[in-house]
Specification:
Elements (H helix, E strand, L loop, with lengths): L30 H13 L2 E5 L6 H15 L4 E6 L9 H8 L10 H9 L4 E6 L5 H14 L3 E7 L8 E5 L5 H15 L10 H10 L4 H8 L7 H15 L8 H16 L2 H10 L8 H8 L9 H10 L4 E5 L2 E5 L2 H13 L3 H22 L5 H10 L1 H13 L4 H10 L1 H6 L3 H13 L8 H19 L3 H18 L2 H17 L3 H18 L4 H16 L3 H18 L3 H17 L2 H17 L3 H18 L2 H14 L11 H18 L1 H12 L3 H9 L39
Parallel strand pairs: 1-4, 1-5, 2-3, 3-4
Antiparallel strand pairs: 6-7
Length: 734
């Protein structure tokens, strides 16, 4: 999580934090418009930048966001790109992801957004909404009504048409700036290219014939590897005569843009046109491996894809992007839509979407296996980057006849991402859609796909604290698994039922079910993060019944297996239990060391559950060290996080006792008024700020071992852990 400075904490004139991509080439012109847009945002809380496709709306808004946010005193700005979102009911998920929110509860995503934005000074940039205008208009209206310090910069081809909206039409560049843009992009292809007396007239005329639309100008500049500016002008005349017979009612700029794209398309080779059309099946970014698999065949050999793709990049049809030494590609939405039209005309859309689905089904399968490996963090990042494409694959499966079972399999296979990386609500959306559809139910792979979706659905519902639908899904899973003899699904269903018993304080039943599930896993040779988390949960169940030594033994075994396999996420929960054990022995330095590692791991995976549990236990360690004020502050920070996780400390007497111990000790030292003031200060911290404060705490001057808990409290062997790695009875890996 990022730590965000408030305006009062930032140096004057500094830029507030945001999530804009780095600019890969020079931004040209628009100085006056940038100033005007900032003034518009001063006057209105909703400003919508409108204009034709290709006029440069997205780049312009991205360029304006950071300085405008700083000028307006916002504590941050965030951008969400909706171009790859196809379903209206996924708009809220996209905003939650852009805001880096993690919410484990079953609250509607809109409620999560309203709660988060209610007291924040934020500039939110919503880009590419025109195909989702109704959903966006409704959401924007509600957000602005509930968050008085929120400002929204919307970017689309049409207004949202809501009350309070101020329209900012973006015109094309003027001739001088358009020619400057042409020269800048041409120089990137041809070092040394510059406007001079020999080419200036032709370049300006090319730009003016393209109405100085930035996208059209960039496409034209991409042709200079093969053509001179004079040649461009001549061919442009030919293409205008060939391609201007579009819809009479279309705006001239739309005709010009389509002409420019169509002209670029006509100049492509047959293989380049073919790849352009096939690449349109991607949503958002893609990598070379995916392009080679999905787009090859029938006229385009896999070995040729890289060369053809390179030509499309040179012509500005495809954009190359690099982050953390990873190269990925994307197309502007207008260019992608043009290719999609050609793919549809060719009659190849369904086949390409099926190949696209197959690739991402395979990716999800491999990532599920890799989750139990040293690549766990990379897997989380990879699935996050591919989420738009995975959504497209899921949508295809759940809308195409005969594909339901594959949608169930894909939604279930992504359990580690839904549960492990803060996407419970979206995971439940896809899981519920998949199991509600009438798919094949005969024995075999089809039935097993549904069983997997059912136990994952039960798991996600437990994590959200929604026990009734969780129980229904798990019961259906177990009954059907026993009927067809699927021992794997039986073990998972029993495991999740054990989680449910754990959170409802039925410890004997939890222990019985979890031991049964672990025995089932051993019988079938199953070993992964889920199995190990079941062992951690069993440790919780026995610890709650007074056998802390057995709990430590179980978690030490988990630690060894995790270290052997490079598994980190489940390891954090084992270390959490071991940290509690160190606290009971009075080794506070060791307890804090283990908890710091837990926080680092939880932050890596955006695991809000693991974070809040660790902060709660860290507060207990801190008050035992003698710093009651810091302990109270940490409890306040945890109190702010819990509403995004579920019922604080799960409403369990077992989980709540150490929390009450910490609060009682801190209150006795500080007094009521000071205790409450420290709690209130902690509640003002963002989750990322709370994590950084806990990680940055200096303990060098503190003793490594201090006297154990006072004898007025239960002995270490009989006290319960501060919390468990379960939320509402569910573990945090699948």
């Amino acid at each position: 999580m990022r730590r965000e400075l408030r305006p009062a904490d930032r140096p004057e004139g500094s830029t507030p934090p945001g999530n804009l991509p780095l600019e890969l080439n020079r931004f040209v012109g628009r100085a006056a418009e940038l100033t005007e847009l900032t003034r518009a945002l001063e006057a209105a809380r909703l400003v919508t930048v409108t204009g034709a496709g290709g006029v440069g709306k997205s780049r312009f808004a991205a360029r304006a966001a950071a300085p405008a946010a700083g000028h307006l005193g916002c504590d941050a700005f965030r951008r969400v790109d909706l171009a790859a979102v196809r379903e209206p009911n996924l708009v809220e998920y996209a905003l939650v992801a852009a805001l880096d929110l993690t919410d484990h509860t079953s609250r509607p995503q809109r409620e999560v957004l309203l709660d988060h934005l209610g007291q924040r000074q934020l500039l939110l940039v919503i880009d590419g909404f025109e195909h989702l205008v109704d959903a966006c208009a409704s959401l924007v209206t509600e957000l602005l009504g509930a968050a008085p310090d929120l400002r929204i910069l919307a970017v689309g081809r049409r207004p949202l048409s809501v009350e309070g909206e101020r329209i900012f039409p973006l015109a094309p560049l003027d001739s001088a700036d358009a020619a400057d843009l042409f020269a800048d992009r041409a120089a990137a292809l041809l070092p040394g290219f510059a406007l001079d007396d020999g080419n200036r007239t032709d370049v300006v005329e090319v730009c003016e014939r393209l109405d100085c639309l930035p996208l059209a100008v960039e496409l034209a500049a991409g042709r200079l590897r093969a053509l001179s500016p004079a040649d461009l002008l001549g061919r442009l005349d030919d293409r205008f005569r060939l391609l201007t017979g579009g819809t009479r009612g279309a705006l001239p700029r739309h005709q010009t843009l389509r002409t420019a794209i169509g002209w670029s398309h006509e100049l492509c080779t047959a293989q380049e046109r073919l790849l352009w059309a096939r690449l349109s099946v991607f949503s958002g970014q893609f990598d070379l491996d995916a392009a080679e698999y999905i787009c090859s065949g029938d006229g385009l050999h896999a070995d040729a894809v890289l060369d053809v793709l390179s030509e499309l990049i040179a012509q500005s049809v495809v954009i190359r992007e690099e982050a953390d030494s990873v190269v990925r590609y994307r197309m502007l939405d207008t260019v992608r839509a043009y290719g999609a039209d050609w793919l549809e005309v060719s009659g190849d859309t369904a086949r390409m979407r099926r190949r696209h689905r197959d690739w991402y089904m395979g990716l999800a399968t491999w990532c599920e296996l890799d989750w139990f490996s040293p690549r766990q963090a990379q897997v989380a990042a990879q699935i996050g980057a591919e989420l738009p494409n995975l959504r497209a694959a899921l949508e295809f499966c759940l809308t195409e006849p005969g594909e339901t079972h594959l949608g169930q399999y894909l939604a279930g296979t992504l359990w580690f991402y839904w549960a492990g990386c803060g996407h419970l609500s979206e995971g439940r959306h896809w899981l519920e859609r998949s199991v509600e559809l009438d798919g094949e139910t005969e024995d075999g792979d089809y039935a097993r796909s549904r069983l997997k979706a059912l136990w994952v659905l039960g798991y996600v519902a437990i994590l959200q604290g929604d026990t009734v639908p969780a129980l229904a899904a798990l019961q259906e899973c177990r009954d059907e698994a026993e009927r067809i003899g699927d021992a794997t699904a039986v073990a998972y269903a029993v495991h999740r039922r054990g989680c449910l018993a754990l959170v409802t304080d039925d410890m004997p039943r939890a222990e019985e079910l979890l031991r049964t599930a672990l025995a089932g896993y051993r019988d079938i040779g199953e070993l992964n993060s889920s199995v190990l988390m079941g062992q951690v949960e069993l440790a919780m169940a026995v610890a709650f019944q007074g056998d802390l030594a057995a709990a430590v033994e179980l978690c030490e075994d988990v630690r060894l297996v995790c270290e052997d396999h490079g598994e980190r996420w489940t390891l954090a929960y084992a270390l959490y239990v071991l940290a509690y054990a160190e606290w009971t022995k009075g080794d506070l330095a060791r307890a804090r060391q283990l908890l710091r590692e837990c926080l680092v791991i939880g932050d890596t995976f955006h695991d809000l559950l693991g974070t809040v549990l660790t902060i709660e236990l860290l507060a207990l360690v801190t008050v035992t060290e003698g710093d009651a004020g810091e302990a109270a502050l940490l409890q306040g920070a945890a109190g702010r996080i819990w509403p995004s996780v579920g019922l604080p400390l799960f409403g369990s007497a077992h989980y709540n006792a150490p929390h009450e111990r910490c609060a009682s000790d801190a209150r006795a030292i500080l007094g009521d008024a000071r205790f409450e003031s420290f709690v209130a200060a902690g509640a003002r911290l963002e989750p990322g700020e709370a994590v950084q404060r806990a990680l940055g705490r200096d303990t060098a001057s503190r003793p490594a071992v201090v006297p154990g808990p006072r004898t007025a409290h239960p002995a270490p062997e009989t006290r319960e852990p501060a919390a468990s790695p379960t939320v509402q009875g569910g573990e945090t890996t699948g």
